[in-house]
Amino acid sequence: MKKYERAYKEFLMKYNLKSTNQRRLIFDSFIKLKKHVSAENFCAIIKQHDKSVGQATVYRMLKLLTDSGIAQKLEMGNGVPVYEPDMGHDHHDHMICEICGNCIEFHDEGLEKLQLELAEKHDFYLTTHKMVLYGICRQCRENVKNQELMLK
User: For position 3, what pLDDT does the model report?
Assistant: First the structure.
């Protein structure tokens, strides 16, 4: 937890913010997330703990957390971005279904190695990366296949 405490203090200093109970609640709740969450759903989570926290406060904090690298914002293909902690979690990439929005997290050493090789080939110093692959999950493909069969 010391790492998170330091990150919280550095976050406040970077944006010249004072520590408030609401900011602390939002920060702590976000760090504890175990799944991707939309801003609207995260706001509902915060409201369960403190009804006085305004939606604008939550949205502003999510933007600042993203800008500071504590949060990662993902476009799900449905127009509703989701957020996840980008600190203290193992690196992973994402596959997102364009129909249902299902998000599959994965890590592949072969891909990681290939990215480093490509960077070296192009004399590029790689500091970080984010990979998001879009497509259609098995369940949605099966649903489409079943609907086609019903129309015949």
Answer: 76
